[in-house]
């Protein structure tokens, strides 16, 4: 095409991408460049569920709990004991939030004060808070009882998890969308050694971070009977002490306070089996 013909072609309004380009040296114009087709949107990988969602959910059968006469006050929301646990929950959450704390040990001066009963029902009360995440760990290796109190079966011993041999998703269970529990299947007389173990602190720190938990409750053995609880105190922010209104003495409470001093904070004393004139929690 001559230069004159090229100009006539342009005046006809040919599409720009179809226009031949005139060469300055009079040679044949190069072939028009063709833009490549738009690439299809890249296929993004599917989002993997978080650690919390990967914990196995298990049925939490209220009817079976009632038939087994399990001590779960959450079935009776109007009961004075249930109201007491809700009040304890609210006060505890206020304290933890004000201080930026998450880890709470639940223990007692002696066996039989109702530590597991209190820890389990407090965890169930905390789990009713919308959009929350609560972890309950049965750290009483002497007399594990959280599984029985919840009407659940523990997947195995907790020692394997605390040593790092068992993965988080294989040990913890979720009976409620907002509650994860670490249950213990059998007693272990090496309790203090397990809690002293170098891996124990790291495993629990990793668990709380990965699960993005709001509150972690640790059901521990009696303070005055073994050194298990003393071994575990560096891992918690504070302690709830459960006293039996029918048997705990002032001397026992004083001994517990002395043992805890300098290691962690006393968050409060919960009076269990109190006389109705003293407290609705019995």
TrEMBL record:
Q: Where is the composition biased (Low complexity)?
A: 15-40
InterPro entries xref list: Bact_polysacc_biosynth/exp (IPR050445), P-loop_NTPase (IPR027417), Wzc-like_C (IPR005702)
Tell me if Cytoplasm is a UniProt keyword of this record. no
Q: Which stretches of sequence are listed as region Disordered?
A: 1-40
UniProt keyword list: ATP-binding, Nucleotide-binding
Q: Can you tell me which residues the record assigns to a coiled coil?
A: none
Name of the protein in its database record:
Chromosome partitioning protein
Annotated organism of origin: Leisingera methylohalidivorans DSM 14336
């Amino acid at each position: 095409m001559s230069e004159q013909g090229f100009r006539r072609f342009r005046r006809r309004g040919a599409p720009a991408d179809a226009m031949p380009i005139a060469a300055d040296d009079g040679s044949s114009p190069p072939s028009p460049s063709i833009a490549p087709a738009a690439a299809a949107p890249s296929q993004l990988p599917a989002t993997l569920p978080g650690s919390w969602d990967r914990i196995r959910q298990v049925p939490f059968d209220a009817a079976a709990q009632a038939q087994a006469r399990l001590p779960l006050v959450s079935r009776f929301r109007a009961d004075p004991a249930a109201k007491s646990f809700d009040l304890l929950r609210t006060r505890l959450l206020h304290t933890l939030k004000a201080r930026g704390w998450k880890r709470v040990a639940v223990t007692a001066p002696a066996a039989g004060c109702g530590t597991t009963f209190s820890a389990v029902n407090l965890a169930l009360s905390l789990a009713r808070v919308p959009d929350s995440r609560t972890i309950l760990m049965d750290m009483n290796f002497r007399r594990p009882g959280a599984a029985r109190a919840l009407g659940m079966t523990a997947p195995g011993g907790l020692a394997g998890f605390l040593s790092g041999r068992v993965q988080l998703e294989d040990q913890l269970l979720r009976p409620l969308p907002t509650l994860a529990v670490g249950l213990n299947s059998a007693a272990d007389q090496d309790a203090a050694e397990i809690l002293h173990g170098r891996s124990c602190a790291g495993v629990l720190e990793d668990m709380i971070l990965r699960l993005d938990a709001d509150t972690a409750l640790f059901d521990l053995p009696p303070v005055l009977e073994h050194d298990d609880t003393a071994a575990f105190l560096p891992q918690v922010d504070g302690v709830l002490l459960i006293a039996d209104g029918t048997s705990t003495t002032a001397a026992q409470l004083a001994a517990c306070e002395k043992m805890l001093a300098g290691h962690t904070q006393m968050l409060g004393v919960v009076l269990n089996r109190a006389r109705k004139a003293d407290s609705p929690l019995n």
